[in-house]
Amino acid sequence: HLNKYMQDKVFGLLLAVWGLRGVSRVILANNPLSGALILAALCWASPWQALLGTLGVLTSTLAAVIMGQDGAEVSGGLHGFNGMLVSMLMGVFSSAGDWYWWLLLPACLGSATCVFLFSGLAPLLDRWDLPVAVFPFNIVIVLYLLCTGPYNPYFPHHPATHAGPMEINATELMAVEVLRGIPLGVGQIFACGALGPSLLILGAVLLYSPLLAAHALLGSAVGTLAGLSMAVRHESLYSGLSGFNGALGCMAVGGLFFTFNWRTHLYAIASAFLSAYADIALSNLLGTVGLPACSWAATMIATLMLLLTGSLSTYRIPMGQVMSP
Amino acid sequence: HLNKYMQDKVFGLLLAVWGLRGVSRVILANNPLSGALILAALCWASPWQALLGTLGVLTSTLAAVIMGQDGAEVSGGLHGFNGMLVSMLMGVFSSAGDWYWWLLLPACLGSATCVFLFSGLAPLLDRWDLPVAVFPFNIVIVLYLLCTGPYNPYFPHHPATHAGPMEINATELMAVEVLRGIPLGVGQIFACGALGPSLLILGAVLLYSPLLAAHALLGSAVGTLAGLSMAVRHESLYSGLSGFNGALGCMAVGGLFFTFNWRTHLYAIASAFLSAYADIALSNLLGTVGLPACSWAATMIATLMLLLTGSLSTYRIPMGQVMSP
Amino acid sequence: HLNKYMQDKVFGLLLAVWGLRGVSRVILANNPLSGALILAALCWASPWQALLGTLGVLTSTLAAVIMGQDGAEVSGGLHGFNGMLVSMLMGVFSSAGDWYWWLLLPACLGSATCVFLFSGLAPLLDRWDLPVAVFPFNIVIVLYLLCTGPYNPYFPHHPATHAGPMEINATELMAVEVLRGIPLGVGQIFACGALGPSLLILGAVLLYSPLLAAHALLGSAVGTLAGLSMAVRHESLYSGLSGFNGALGCMAVGGLFFTFNWRTHLYAIASAFLSAYADIALSNLLGTVGLPACSWAATMIATLMLLLTGSLSTYRIPMGQVMSP
Question: First and final CA of chain B: distance in angstroms?
Fold first, then answer.
């Protein structure tokens, strides 16, 4: 009996560590401590969201164990971060308010579906030594929102709004608010729009790698700049939604998949600009059918950067050796 | 003279067998007898549709012969089923009524185009040992409907309607009608909405493989359940349109590409659910531009299932050995 | 000093030759002289457009040099033609009028982005020995138009109109105008809608290869025929917009990637028809969100043709040996 009890306890502990690793994976880190800090930040911002996120990461990690996925991948948290994002975004887009318990049902199913997509996309992308990244999250959340639609009787959600220039009698832009949007852009990677928790999340990244944190802020600033140049809605700038794709694109190139030097640094800035502009374009496109652009732009631009031939490719770290520290 | 006559006769006979094999391929079977039964069922439901289907399967098989496609593929009926579906669906969506003879022109051209797409997609998908399946049909029918548009003077068609919850003063759901929709879901694979022919089609599958027939019914039931959970229009449930993607997804995993055991059975049910939900999502998306979702959902989910790593992949039957019985 | 001066001069000269090669690459030729003729034709049609095109081809070629792309590709003009098209099309869709100098900024950035996409797509498509073709141009121009949107305060543009049958009180079709649209279809590959320059462009192709020029005219005629059969707007027929995808599809198969004989000639005609119909379908689809179909159709159909197995594949020229003369 004791043995069985110990085994269960050990498995529970392991699952928690895998889950925390998964939480930190969302922001391209890989460290249970960073994961715990991020979870604390999310709990501070909204306990309901933190609950959904925890549920998502545990469900998808468990689903991966049951489906017999590769052990190293599971223990590295690779099967957790997509499920977490799906679960949290379902909460963000839901118009039924917090603590709407029925939402746990699609959250669990959606998180488990991520494992199917992760496992199915891996052999496709592996041919070019590409990571699956957050493609499963982006696919599942778009399908979920399409499936339910804004007027669903069980799971209603807010339609996404365009990022494009729609205001006619816009007020003047407030510089302080725009600057505030830069750290918020880092928090928006976890769909978190409050300043305190965003800074805590940034701190969690700093704990893992100062280089990554610097590129996160830089990318968010670049994204905000791109948003300004295209005259997007002021709310996008203030809330950090303009910045988070830039931040992800910048981090992936500048702090994760390539060895750092001034050349990759320039490529990281280019990647941030491309991600930000592509995000504006995609949110204008998907906004016509009421869908959000999520992190499609950053995911695709980072994938493109990994495929580049020429001078950038010489600094590329092979996938097997990335994410180790 | 006699020799030439005999040769022609033999070729005609062979073409008929290949065509009948192609007809049965639509529902994942591979048996001329099942094909003949299905053709009889279609003739019973609508002679015009059966004519279009026969024309489609013959045209695309002939086109494959002329284009010098692989002989084993042609004689296995692999170049027939996409053409048949394109041709029949053109008839279903046409708003010019039955026996509109001009429709034979796009039906022939569309069926022949399927051979181009089949032959072009095969090398792409072959890298991962994936079948081309009904991708050509889905692409060609969507392009045809986009090309003509609802108000085309020569080939008008009905715009597709959303599956989403659109009714406000909806009547109560009738349980009997919903149950009736389950066998209809099997018939809808051939765009056939009558009960008798649907049962005959189910019988044709039963003749080929009882396992496949059981999974067809199971998948259709799962699809109907998914439709109920998302509160789709009642007509979708009654007509079996909610069920047919689930049926295809369930059959592909449970009865065709994997050896049968209780694990693959569970995966088959998961595949049916994923196909059904993805179908609702896609029909909501494509419905905004007046397009039907066809069998995109089932085709993509089945492809995903074939790509899965982990416990499912150990039961996978290599493509070369599938479809033999 | 003299040495340095000479080197600069030599580099400038080389860049000019690479650029002219890039200009001719747009229409599948590969000859600096043809490039110069085409540039003269564009200058005749609109000096502003010619300036944008020159800027685009130089920017993207320079960006490729800076990014350390393969030298043989750069000197072959492979990194120029996408940038040229992006830059010119930005000018065509801009509603701010000619000589709007701010447009040079997105033109330069968009052209440089093409190098990223070219370099990133190359390893993907290389697996099947496929060319990158004008995929980067099509992606970048669509993203640019989505990003700015019709009401952008800095870079406004005309929304694209449907090709579909929208007119109710249409006037009678004028045969002379339709025939005039056939050579215009060749000019529309460079977004040029005047007869004189179009004929000069055709002359430039004739200079490179009479076979290619014949297929360009044939393809444009086929595209016009396809447009007539689908009752598209009369303006599309008159302006040559119906024909240019057909021309590109026909040229790629009939004069470039396959050795010429009567079989590949028939395939070239089929390719022209498929390109033209796919273009009508895509422009109807993309027109619903105000986007043009560009040359997506021809690019995809040509890629499909290169993938075909069967009798066509035996005449295929390996990618390394194409484009040499």
Answer: 38
Establish if A123 touches chain C: CB-CB under 8 angstroms: no
Please name the member of A128, A231, A284 whose beta carbon is closest to the beta carbon of C146: A284
Nearest Cβ partner for B307 among A123, A148, A289: A123
Strand partners for B258: B316
Task: Give one word for B18, left, alpha or beta, with left for phi > 0 and alpha for psi -120 to 50.
Answer: alpha
Q: Which of C27, C67, C15 is nearest to C215 (CA)?
A: C27
Q: Tell me which residue in A231, A274, A307 faces C152 most closely, judged by beta carbons.
A: A231
Residue A171: is it exposed, middle or buried by C-beta count within 10 angstroms (0-12/13-18/19+)? exposed
Cβ contacts from A onto C, under 8 A? 68
Place of tokens 């929709």: B181
**CA B115/CA B56 separation, integer angstroms:** 11
Q: What gap in Å lies between CA C274 and CA C279, rounded to an integer? A: 8
Q: Residue C110: what residue type?
A: G
Q: Which of A73, A137, A146 is nearest to A107 (CA)?
A: A137
Q: What is the pTM of this model?
A: 0.93
Chain C contact for B319, CB < 8 A?
no
Helix (H, G, I), strand (E, B) or coil at A317: coil
* Minimum distance, in Å, between the CA of residue C281 and any CA atom of chain B: 4
Q: What is the DSSP string of A159-182?
A: PP---S---SSPPPPPHHHHHHHH
Q: Are A135 and A299 in contact (CB under 8 A)?
A: yes
pLDDT in tens, A94-113: 988 888 999 999 999 999 99
pLDDT tens sequence across B26-85: 999 888 999 999 999 999 999 999 999 999 999 999 999 999 998 888 988 899 999 999
Closest to A56 (Cα-Cα) out of A11, A103, A108, A93: A108
Mutating which of B125, B130, B168, B277 best tests the A interface, going by the most A Cβ atoms within 10 A? B277
Residues of C in contact with A165 (CB under 8 A): 149, 151-153
Tell me the chain A residues in contact with residue B129 when contact means C-beta distances shorter than 8 Å.
Answer: none
What integer is the mean pLDDT of B273-296?
A: 93
Which ranges of chain C does DSSP label H, i.e. alpha helix?
Answer: 2-25, 32-45, 47-66, 71-75, 81-93, 104-126, 135-148, 175-187, 195-208, 210-229, 234-239, 244-251, 262-287, 296-307
Q: Is the pLDDT of residue B312 over 50?
A: yes
Query: Rg of chain C over CA atoms, in angstroms?
Result: 19
Decide if A230 and C147 are in contact by the 8 Å CB cutoff. yes
Low-confidence ranges of chain C (pLDDT < 70): 1, 161-171, 322-325
Q: Strands, DSSP E only, in chain A?
A: none
Q: Pick the residue of B124, B141, B144, B146 with the most C CBs within 10 A to test the interface with C by mutation.
A: B146
Q: What is the mean pLDDT of residues A134-144?
A: 95
Closest CA to B56 of B21, B101, B107, B12: B107
The residues near C31 (Cβ < 8 Å, ≥ 6 apart) are: C21, C24, C207, C208
Interface test with A, best of C146, C152, C157, C291 (most A CBs within 10 A): C146
Q: Tell me, what's the pLDDT at B17?
A: 92
pLDDT of residue A168: 55
